[in-house]
Design brief:
CATH architecture: 3-Layer(aba) Sandwich
Helix content: 25-40%
Shape: globular
Distance between the termini: 16 Å
Number of strands: 6
Oligomer: single chain
CATH class: Alpha Beta
Structural class: alpha/beta
CATH superfamily: Leucine Aminopeptidase, subunit E, domain 1
Order of helices and strands: EEHHEEHEHE
Strand content: 15-25%
Number of domains: 1
Length: about 140
């Protein structure tokens, strides 16, 4: 794992995939709740991504999935409800699933913010061992 002080979007042309931290809620109109942090940035940069994530949540559940293809953006759930703190068990499940997606797609450069450590209320020392165990080759973007 390598930690960079950067804006995650600055890696869009160099990374095989950019992961955005997400929650598991959808609104009445079917769109995912993407109101803060990196998820909000993604929604602002890629109109309609909240609808794609909402469809993903309804059909596959609150698990990582590809929600944009150019650049490749992967949802990385850290919360079930946006109002809650991030959940270490969910982060571990997300990291395991992302690890299998990396192998399946042959990705070598993955950008990920420190999951759960901004709006999720966790501290990096709580999360780092999980990421290091499942995603040792990931690039962590820390502003």
């Amino acid at each position: 794992m390598k930690i960079y002080r950067c804006d995650i979007w600055s890696l869009a042309d160099r990374a095989d995939a950019i992961c955005i931290t997400t929650n598991g809620l959808t609104k009445a109109n079917g769109e995912a709740v993407m109101g803060k942090g990196i998820a909000l940035q993604a929604r602002q940069r890629f109109p309609g991504i909240d609808r794609v994530l909402g469809d993903h949540l309804r059909t596959r559940g609150n698990v990582p999935g590809i929600i944009n293809v150019n650049p490749t953006i992967v949802s990385f759930p850290t919360k079930n409800d946006w109002r809650d703190k991030s959940d270490l068990d969910l982060i571990e499940k997300s990291a395991r699933k992302l690890s299998s997606m990396i192998a399946e797609h042959g990705w070598t450069k993955i950008a990920l913010p420190k999951p759960g450590c901004a709006n999720g209320g966790l501290r990096w020392p709580q999360v780092e061992p999980i990421i290091d165990r499942w995603l040792p080759s990931v690039f962590i973007c820390d502003r």
